[in-house]
Amino acid sequence: MKDILSYTIRRFGWMLLTVWAVYTVSFVLMRAVPGNPFSSERTVPPAIERQLRARYNLDAPPIEQYTDYLVGIVTRGDLGVSIRLEDYTVNEVLAEGFPVSASLAILALVFALSLGVTAGVVSAVYRGSVGDLALMGTAVLGIAIPNFVLASLAILLFVFIIPIFPAAGWGTLRQVALPALCLGAPVAAYIARLTRAGMLEVLGREHVRTAFAKGLPKKTVILKHVLPGALLPVVSYLGPATASVLTGSLVLEKIFALPGIGSHFIYAATQRDYTLAMGMVLTYTVLLFVMNSLVDLSYAVIDPRVKLQ
């Protein structure tokens, strides 16, 4: 317990340092890009642009903008007002979009774990069979095909040719099922390969051969003696898997017209909405850091030989 507490405190300190570094780099890069939030095809009169700059504190020196925004985040948790979405604060945009993105990510991970672990176990148990070759071949395709290409093919097949799912929208399970499947498919492919490799390694260990020699049922040996040890690589992959799901949702939310934070992120980047883009970058940074820390903790709990550092 003491090790977990000290590890958590250290990781929290590293998270603060990481968030500050990401904030600094993002601030510099946003200001270094040519143009500004008010440069568009429609020319804004200079007098109105000056008023808008004053309203959003963009007329202040860069170091003052950097300090004021950072102080607002640290002291009040205030991510500012969106420049392009009138009457919306970044906190309000996050509050509306985060449940959508979180639901999509959770469903995608549940699907990926269920399908990936099952396929990996079956493939390892029946190694060298036609089913093994078919499953691993499908896994290779799942890894090779980007999720946005898979989403386009899925829309063509399951929306227009075989109308099972709606093309877009949010609010029902049918509307979120197809994007979750497309988002989780590449992750499921990785998990299947990791599970198969872990299963094959554990199957060759002495205690497993001893269990078979004692006459234990094959199902009992696989589920009780083999699978727990084989899942350690899968647990270690959950951190990168979470990153893959979160970053992949940026494009899929746009394709399926989902009102999540991913679609707002793309909008902020294309419209040069400094405050909204910064809020999204910091949110994703915190989410990824927290999920990787939880994965490290769970890895130490599953395997007591692992020491937290």
UniProtKB/TrEMBL annotation:
<feature type="domain" description="ABC transmembrane type-1">
    <location>
        <begin position="98"/>
        <end position="299"/>
    </location>
</feature>
<feature type="transmembrane region" description="Helical">
    <location>
        <begin position="176"/>
        <end position="195"/>
    </location>
</feature>
<feature type="transmembrane region" description="Helical">
    <location>
        <begin position="104"/>
        <end position="126"/>
    </location>
</feature>
<feature type="transmembrane region" description="Helical">
    <location>
        <begin position="12"/>
        <end position="33"/>
    </location>
</feature>
<feature type="transmembrane region" description="Helical">
    <location>
        <begin position="281"/>
        <end position="302"/>
    </location>
</feature>
<keyword id="KW-0812">Transmembrane</keyword>
<keyword id="KW-1133">Transmembrane helix</keyword>
<comment type="similarity">
    <text>Belongs to the binding-protein-dependent transport system permease family.</text>
</comment>
<dbReference type="InterPro" id="IPR035906">
    <property type="entry name" value="MetI-like_sf"/>
</dbReference>
<feature type="transmembrane region" description="Helical">
    <location>
        <begin position="133"/>
        <end position="164"/>
    </location>
</feature>
<dbReference type="GO" id="GO:0055085">
    <property type="term" value="P:transmembrane transport"/>
</dbReference>
<keyword id="KW-0813">Transport</keyword>
<keyword id="KW-1003">Cell membrane</keyword>
<dbReference type="GO" id="GO:0005886">
    <property type="term" value="C:plasma membrane"/>
</dbReference>
<protein>
    <submittedName>
        <fullName>Oligopeptide transport system permease protein</fullName>
    </submittedName>
</protein>
<keyword id="KW-0472">Membrane</keyword>
<dbReference type="Pfam" id="PF00528">
    <property type="entry name" value="BPD_transp_1"/>
</dbReference>
<dbReference type="InterPro" id="IPR000515">
    <property type="entry name" value="MetI-like"/>
</dbReference>
